[in-house]
Amino acid sequence: MPRPRSLTPDQLASAALAVLDREGLAGLSMRAVAKELGMSTMGLYRYVDDREELEGLVVERVLGAVDTTPPDPGAPWDERLRTMVGRLRDTVGAHPAVLPLTLTHRHRSPSSLRWAETALAILTEAGLDGERRVLALRALLGYVIGAIQLEHLGPLSGAGTVTISELPSDEFPYMADTARQARSVGVEREFFGGLEVFLRGLGA
């Protein structure tokens, strides 16, 4: 009998990520990942206790690719925060199905904690502390996660915007007009334009 092969955590995470990218979060299961690895579901349980542990491996696999090095300390605080947000968007945006998992596993992911630590240092240098700093980080994460989901699930250039732009103007004058303007807004402008609104409010 051949000895069972040994798999590394990175191999397990890569297989789970392949399933997520292809089938979405609903398709992630122990059975699906085992099939991706060419092994039985019971064989997968030799490496992880359950799906939750598998999810944690995937989150760390994705977030581990985010550069958490503090940006140039000589740059303005808002520019440094833009850099940190851009790094997160570039990496996580390549695997949008992982986004919900980053919320439930953020406290277990060393890479997530390192990103937040760097962001908090920048917010502190900007003069935020106590409850205001708590709310600022929470709102920043809320914006980034929501904006990435909108970019991939409901982009301004998508069919949903077209439908809204065709609503009757007598009933939805602002929605129809705004949607007509939104159709010309690109994804980069959408994301970083919204971030600018957030950062201006933060500096007020």
Explain this structure.
The structure is a single chain. The protein has 204 residues and is mainly alpha-helical. It is built from eleven helices and no strands. Helix 1 packs across helix 4, helix 5 packs antiparallel against helix 7 and helix 9 crosses helix 10. The longest helix is centred in the C-terminal third of the chain and has 24 residues. The termini are far apart. 23% of the residues are buried. This is TetR/AcrR family transcriptional regulator C-terminal domain-containing protein. It holds the Pfam family TetR_C_1. Keywords: DNA-binding, Repressor, Transcription, Transcription regulation.
What's a concise summary of this model?
With 204 residues, the protein is mostly helical. The chain has eleven helices and no strands.
Discrete helix count: 11
C-alpha Rg (nearest Å): 21 Å
Strand content: under 5%
Q: Tally of extended strands?
A: 0
How widely separated are the two ends?
Answer: 69 Å
Approximate helicity band: 55-70%
What are the salient characteristics of this protein?
204 residues, mainly alpha, flat, DNA-binding, HTH_TetR, transcription regulation, transcription, Tet_transcr_reg_TetR-rel_C_sf
List the helices and strands and how they pair.
Blueprint: H1 9-23, H2 30-37, H3 41-44, H4 51-63, H5 77-92, H6 99-104, H7 110-125, H8 130-153, H9 159-165, H10 173-182, H11 187-203
